[in-house]
Design brief:
The protein has 249 residues and is an alpha/beta fold. It has helices at 62-71, 88-94, 106-112, 176-185, 196-200, 206-219, 236-243, and strands at 12-16, 19-31, 34-46, 51-55, 73-78, 99-102, 121-122, 135-140, 148-153, 158-160, 223-225. Helix content is 24%, strand content 27%.
Length: 249
């Protein structure tokens, strides 16, 4: 396999009570003008009212939608950062009553990419009343290029990140080129972290980032879900400290 995927794809995988991940297929993202393939992953949380909160929706799949409909009603479609939004409009077509939530800069990004998305509300530095009792959140600030909204599912002690940590597994690909890319970018398991190009955008403004990181540490996560690569089902707080040690430099 050239790029590691996390089979079975488009299937609900239980993380803890009322929280699931779904691994999807590949997408290509432009990084330093190079089209790099990424595996994809979304997170679904069932709220106390029985509705579903969907983080970074992957490409829709008929079988997946059927399984999701058995869980509950899709009520929230969340873009966690401005490069994770491409399928929200398709999900909104399937779930017209769902509320779409925008991350900083995503509406401008979608418009520039000619991918129209009709967002209902912006995500802020504190969780809205729709889910604040169950999910905490903050906007991770300090980057000149990308602000990511991170979330913490309180009951399962699960931190949900998107691109702030990437953790690709070199051992799962036979492609020497991609193994080298993962290592050079600082996103190779077992030492996955913020990609080097993204880390550079915090130059001169790490104070804000450290404040956000400190707030995440206070959550004391047990698990960390990532959008790309192997996620952490145990020892989350220690993995967080390891992955963000670049902030101390």
């Amino acid at each position: 396999m050239t790029i590691p995927l996390y089979d079975p794809l488009n299937k609900l995988k239980k993380v803890d009570e009322n929280i699931w991940i779904v691994d999807g297929g590949l997408i290509k993202m432009s990084v330093m003008n190079v089209g790099i393939p990424f595996s994809t992953r979304m997170t679904i949380i069932k709220l106390k009212d029985g509705s579903l909160w969907c983080h970074s929706p992957i490409k829709p799949d008929h079988g997946l939608m059927n399984a999701i409909n058995q869980l509950g009603e899709v009520k929230h479609l969340v873009s966690p950062n401005k490069i994770h939004y491409a399928y929200i409009s398709e999900w909104k077509t399937s779930y017209p009553n769902a509320t779409t939530w925008s991350s900083p800069g995503v509406e401008e990004r979608a418009q520039s990419q000619n991918i129209p998305v009709d967002f209902d509300h912006p995500l802020k530095d504190d969780a809205p009343s729709d889910w604040s009792d169950e999910i905490d959140q903050l906007i991770f600030k300090g980057s000149r290029a990308l602000e990511e909204v991170v979330f913490f599912h309180k009951s399962s002690r699960t931190l949900i990140l998107t691109d702030l940590i990437e953790n690709f597994e070199p051992k799962r690909t036979s492609n020497i080129f991609w193994r080298s890319v993962y290592k050079l970018a600082g996103i190779a398991d077992p030492d996955g972290k913020t990609p080097i190009d993204m880390r550079l955008t915090f130059s001169g403004n790490k104070k804000q980032a450290r404040e956000c990181y400190t707030r995440m540490l206070r959550w004391q996560p047990e698990k960390i879900i990532l959008a790309h690569g192997r996620w952490y089902d145990t020892n989350g707080t220690e993995e967080l400290k390891r992955a963000f040690r670049w902030l101390e430099k």
